Amino acid sequence: MKVAVIGGGPAGLYFSLLLKQARPNAEITVLERNRPDDTFGWGVVFSDQTMENFKAADAVSFERITASFAHWDDIDVHVRGRVITSGGHGFAGIARRKLLNILQERCAELDVDVRFEIDLKSDADLADLGLGDADVIVAADGINSVIRARHAEHFRPALDVRTARFVWLGTTFPFEAFTFYFVENEHDVHCGVRRGVVAEGRF
Fold first, then answer.
1. I want to staple 39 with a disulfide (CB 3.0 to 4.6 A). Which of 7, 54, 97, 103 is the partner?
2. Angle at Cα 74 formed by Cα 57 and Cα 98, nearest 5°?
3. Centroid of chain to Cα 63
4. Which has the minimum average pLDDT: 78-82, 144-148, 181-185, 196-200?
5. Is residue 41 pLDDT above 80, yes or no?
6. Total-model pTM
7. Are strands 75-79 and 82-86 parallel, antiparallel or unpaired?
């Protein structure tokens, strides 16, 4: 079986390493438009239940992820001068770049061919890369997927765009809990989320 995965983000990489374990003879090629250390966004958060699923699916990458994440059990909500703490949730956070590097390394160990700086404009271009005969094509190229757009009549995607605004800010200050700040003014209600430290493996 020959598989072409378009998009080397967490979803495309994790799919590829799991498929390679299930089908060791499969030829799997991941095509990523960015460089190995390029990323957009600070980090990724997983619930404890998701981490248990990771452990069952691939213990090797699970161990590497858990060695690099920050973990919280509590959520602190700051609202109208009060702090409300809710416990027992269980969240793990890891820097997106670190997560990508872990999954890239795991794919390499399993002999998944991950190619970088290949910006595919259409799945029709796979032939130019020697992948025109792929048995399966996986579109893992994000919300602005060119593959999904090209085959929209079959996938029938529905995107609901809203007007909420957000901004990412980094801090080196460690927080003991997953923290939400709600602030009200004459314009609206604003929410800030604080989830750890920006450092190697954490965010």
1. 97
2. 45
3. 17
4. 196-200
5. no
6. 0.84
7. antiparallel
